[in-house]
Amino acid sequence: MLNLPIRSPAGKEATVQAYNVAVTDTLKSFPTMNFSFIGDGANEAAEKMIMPRVIITDPTTGQQYRIASSNPVPTARFRVYAITTIHIAHDLHDYYIENTVTGSQSLKACCDLLTGGTKFKYSIDDNISDHDFGSDSLGNAHGDDILSSIASAFDIEYWFDNCTIHFAKEIGKKDSFVFIDRVNTSKIQVNEDYTTITTAIKGTGKQIDVQNNGGNGNLDSVEGFAKSMINADFGVNKQQMCQDFANRSQKVQARGVDVNRLYDTVKNAGISPEWFFAYELQEQNSNMGWLNHWSYPHGDPYNDAVVVCNWIKSIAYSDTLNPAWSAAEGSISPDPNLQSKWEQDYGKGTIGRLYLQATAAAVWELAGRSGNASIGKPLAGCVSTIKGWGGHTVQAPSGSGGSGQIAAFARQYAGVPYVWGGNSPSGWDCSGFIAYIYNHFGIPMHQPTTYEEYQGQVVGPPYQEGDMLFWGARGRTYHVALALDSNTLEMAANPERGTVIQAISAWPPDFAVRNSTMATKVSGGDDSSDDSSSDTDTSSDTTTQYTCQGEYDSPMAADDKWGKIWADPFSSDTITDQDTLMAALKKQVHDYPDVQYTTDWITFKDAFSHGIKNEIAVGNYGYLRDRYGIDVNVRIQSYTRYRDRYTTQTDTVTFGNKIFGIDEWNNRENQANAALHKAPKKPETVTPPVTFDDIQTINVKKESEENG
């Protein structure tokens, strides 16, 4: 028995004689205390005090708990109560905090939000970096939910001392215990949960709204060029440009780049290839990344181009313009008046906004002052280069359409491979193919099908050139194709067939969508009508792109491993560079089973157990070893300890979520293959239990050795 102090909401106090008093502490959770008592004369007062909001105190630690549930079971003479309590810190849920914070915040500011006006205090036990919530907000929720959000956002842990919350990067100690099967524990049990595994994920960084009128490229002046959008069309002769770029680019020649593939990669990343190619020719360094932004390339030339395009968008769509007045080669004095003028002249998404922040030479050029006479004028150089490719000021989107032109353009791509998530002629999926065709003709479009199906009015047969044909109910479509005429379609079918042309009657669609802009182009008309009707669900003149986007595949995503098991897509409105995004995606993938170990401690009450000194607390790290091959470093996830000395119940420790890397699964596969090729053997006798002397331990000594 253990006497537990009990206090009613009115402040009345008594004690309850309890048995099987079990306190369970779990990482990143509220501790609980469960116990039983008999409703006899000794507990008469306590029995009458069982009600909501009653507080029970653990006399061994002084920690307080509120009764969460009571389950009285009648017997012949009295009732036996089973009581569940939860730590007093759960009173955070009593507070609904309406205030919010957003943007970049310190942990202190978030804790002030959490505890302000409450009975709670906090202690920050480590140096914790600030966290940027972006446009998301913290607050307008119950206190316990805000606590969980804080821990997740700052990637920290916490523990409670009654109404004081302690925050740290990580709680617990290293090398604090060793458990050995049949030595100081009765058994070590393992549970591996394979249902939560994911091996692949796609994600996007900060969202930006790209103006759809990006096709209007201006080459009339350097200033006009700088005011053009980063996805502008300058009307160049593509073949001439690609050939000239292939002949002049040091990187193309050094890396064996397919210029046409590079063109498609840049264009599909939302950047003008004409400007990108011209910019690159102004830089010229075969050892660096495209545009010389990084001192090294990010992977192959095409992935490197995507990374650089994402960087371009993040700078061009920055909220404020911060000119690069100086560089290693020279500088000019900052001019606040010029900066203010440029902020107005070169809005978000313009070439000038990128150049002014990325290249000091462009700042000097637009300011009309030189920071170094030997440095050229990059903007004028781009204008001259693009004009040399036949470029000129463009007043309308490229591709006027006209009956048969859309179909003729699309037909040339029959045979292109099917690549899930792809959107270029090097490989695309069904919605990526549609987006590519529409974007070529100046009609903004992007994946997936559930977006494309709302970019027009639903129509039935007969279908016409340019119609989008869909399979599945609207809102839940799973496939799309392009109508080439009333009888024929083209689609990226599947990995086996690729991009194919076939009769519509061979697989009739469930419905079709006709985009009015595409329909106008097909008819050869002018799509600049001021018709107020819209065939989309929004009237916005922008289309959504992202500062960075990508896909992460775990090593276990290989076909000869576990294959691709997709996690939910990830998005962040604070990430603006590719490396940070890929690190975040890698962190989101759960490419390992949840592995938990549980052990019953035989001689828990002793200070020493078979000469092994153990320090048991949630968060502590140590070692588990048994005769069947377990030999792991683990962390205590949950710990249940019985407070009453003479209980017959056994204390338990759970060690949580051991993460095994690819080597572990390769070893298991090799062992399985070896076992499959072995001849059958007679059953062997079980190996006798190991003893302390049989196993090497780390940082552990026998009691006899410690005592000399």
Automatic annotation (TrEMBL):
UniProt KW keywords: Hydrolase, Protease, Thiol protease
Protein name: NlpC/P60 domain-containing protein
One term of GO molecular function: cysteine-type peptidase activity
Region Disordered: start-end pairs: 520-553
InterPro entries for the chain: NLP_P60_dom (IPR000064), Papain-like_cys_pep_sf (IPR038765), PG_Endopeptidase_C40 (IPR051794), Tail_dom (IPR010572)
Any one of the GO BP annotations: proteolysis
The species this protein was found in: Limosilactobacillus reuteri (Lactobacillus reuteri)
Ranges in a coiled coil: none
Low complexity: bias regions: 535-544
Keyword Hydrolase listed: yes
